[in-house]
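Sequence design from tokenized structure. All designs in this work follow the same two-part layout: the structure record, then the generated sequence. An example of the structure record is given first.
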């Protein structure tokens, strides 16, 4: 069905989220090859400098994966439901999902994305957002395969 899915995320996940993250990754791997790339989180005093540095690291990783569809999770993005996300998964393209740091993405990263997606109007830590996104990717695959997980 899918060539590959990767997530490029700023920062390492907190210990309390790692077991959930691992569980959803193993579930996703039933449907697709999967890769999680964790990039250094910057904490400059100036948030715009943080966003710039993190953006440069993301763009370096994207340059090596130019054939992939790129979806960035951003507060300004389109709101989609689980069925909408499953439709994004239903393609032969490789997919790359971007999860930024607490200050968001640089304009260059946003321009590189094929689509900006908002996971909620609420604010979540980027570590918790990562678990939510993994769950939604898994849910999307169960929707595509008419499995009972999604109700």
């Amino acid at each position: 069905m899918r060539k590959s899915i990767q997530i490029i995320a700023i920062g390492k996940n907190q210990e309390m989220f790692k077991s959930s993250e691992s569980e959803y990754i193993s579930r996703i791997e039933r449907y697709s090859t999967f890769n999680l790339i964790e990039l250094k989180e910057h904490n400059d005093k100036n948030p715009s400098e943080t966003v710039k540095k993190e953006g440069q690291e993301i763009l370096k990783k994207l340059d090596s994966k130019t054939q992939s569809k790129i979806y960035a999770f951003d507060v300004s993005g389109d709101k989609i439901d689980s069925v909408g996300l499953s439709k994004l998964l239903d393609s032969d393209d490789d997919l790359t999902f971007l999860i930024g740091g607490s200050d968001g993405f640089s304009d260059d990263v946003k321009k590189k994305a094929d689509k900006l997606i908002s996971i909620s109007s609420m604010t979540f830590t980027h570590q918790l957002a990562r678990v939510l996104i993994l769950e939604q990717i898994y849910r999307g695959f169960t929707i595509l395969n008419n499995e009972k997980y999604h109700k």
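Residues 5-144 form a domain with the Alpha/beta knot fold (CATH 3.40.1280.10). We note this feature because it recurs in several other targets discussed in the main text.
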